[in-house]
Amino acid sequence: MDRISALRNVEDALRAFENGEADLADTERRVAAVLRTYATEFDGDDDVFRAVGDEPVDGQVVVAASKPAARERVLALSGFDPGGSGDTGAADDSGDRNVSGDPTAPKRDALPEFDVERV
To answer: Are residues 18 and 67 in the same domain?
Structure first.
């Protein structure tokens, strides 16, 4: 599905909602299905994965080539260093980490515990 087709399908779902032909839950399902189809075709042969575990990553859905790649993508989107070990280093004894490189980003403790499952 190309971008224009995806947008048209989302517009159709919204129009049905506006006309009272679909409820909110049905509209959400239709829009999510369009996005999932678009994303998987856009990224090629990749699969859709959902993070299951600790906050703030629980429930995040990503498109990736493998489970390890999906874990890295979830961590990166959550502001964690995907290669990080949770070690704060000897110079910092506070236990907080800002791994995003953004000085305004919140500091994080150790990496969250989670798994990824194919959706």
So the answer is: no
